[in-house]
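Comment thread on ticket #2218

A.B. wrote:
> Attaching the input chain for the structure job we discussed in standup.
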Amino acid sequence: MSAGGIQFNYDSTDNYRHQILNYWNSNTDSRMDFNIARSGGQTPETILSVGYGTNVGIGTTTPNAKLDVSSS
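C.D. wrote:
> Ran it. Output below, let me know if you need it in another format.
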């Protein structure tokens, strides 16, 4: 469940935006995601997630270790 956050807009069209969003789930934990839209009109992509189980994920929102780096 998203619980709000901060959005940074490059211009008034929201075409270029970055976000810091909070998520909370009473059954698991909470986390904070850092999202970046790499081009105009694109949905921001999560590049860093901090929280669940005190873990940090790069490229994943469900890190399974203190530092979990996922790449394709």
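A.B. wrote:
> Thanks. Noting for the ticket: The mean pLDDT is 84.
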